[in-house]
Give the backbone structure.
Amino acid sequence: MRCLDSRLRGNDTKLFMQLEKLKKILTDNGELKFRLSQIQKAIYQDGVSDFSEISTISKNLRETLEKEMKILSFEVEKVLVSKDKSSLKALLKLADGNKIESVLLSPMPARNATHSVAGGEKKWSVCISSQVGCPLNCSFCATGKGGLQRNLTAEEITDQVLFWRQYIRKQGTGNSEQEKNAPHPSDSVTWQNQNLLIKERGQISNIVYMGMGEPFLNWEEVKKSLRDLVDKNLFAFGSRSISVSTAGIPEGLKNLAEEFPQINLAISLHFATDEKRNRFMPINKKYNLEELKGALKDYFSKTNRQIFFEYVLLSGINDSEEDAYALSTYLKSIGHRQLLHVNLIAYNETGEEFKASSGNKTHLFKDFLEKGGMSVTIRKSLGQEVAGACGQLAGNKLKIF
Ligand code: SAH
């Protein structure tokens, strides 16, 4: 949420404390303290997208707030929805004109999506960006191609979650009869002019920092965003429903272990020898596998939590038996084998020279690791249709819009 203070209009990206601003308006208007919690609840938990919808406060106050503040820190340019309505990607325009992408994914196929999951509603995952672009330049990933533009502020990070909360509340997610008959969103359909559909279609159960950027290279803002996400008065997510993914920055691992030991950690490993990792992930030249191992051991000693290793299978590059052996050997050398979990990820085409490994190769790779006692999952790739799958964000320089 941000205010439309004159300093912040146009290209001015100066930061400010939106909650401070809200508190000030309330104090200036002689409002009681509990108004703040009412407003916070309405915005952060209920997903209200307009002050006029907050029925628990007076009309006067609603009008003042509307005049002085804006809830989201960006404009929503477009939302693309996959045909099965299980993956959505938003193009968000920041106050300085930079653009980022954020993705909403349903882990279940759409045809089952209207069925309640055990004990509750449909669950969604939100994939959020932490930087505009990325400085890491991994050769198989589309996000890094244009380099880093800038870090996101904590507010720009958490506003992505707020936006999806609002979106779900306003639009439904495409599974009602009414929605199924609605026109499929196309390039010409923007969020603003899509039909408003049904209300309340499940809720966000997971947040993953797996969008654009390297979270640990923007730690100060990522840290603030994590605090807000778990704050009971704000987003109120459980720590264990949040995952941070990193290409392996030792300092970041240390910070996460010390400050958020309950938040899940994913390591984008992808290659288990320095020779290969150096070739495709330049960050490895700075922090090699040995150094990463030291940081992971340290992480275990502080948290005793499970670590997820992401391994994207690239045909002919890292999917041989030899590669599986190297991976297995590396992971075993870290220790705490029962706390290691490997996610084998199907490569999403980004128009580069890489190809995804075949299903057969993928299964052989998995079997090899499992024989060595590793716990392994083959991860289905969600979001490809809207180019919102891992590594595809901003890949086509937004021309798909
Ligand atoms: N910089 C962080 C956060 C980005 S997460 C990190 O590296 O973890 C994005 C994930 O998608 C990373 O695991 C990344 O390696 C992976 N990825 C990148 N390009 C991909 C592609 N084309 N197909 C599948 N996964 C990809």
Summary: The longest strand covers residues 74-81. The two ends are 25 Å apart (CA to CA).
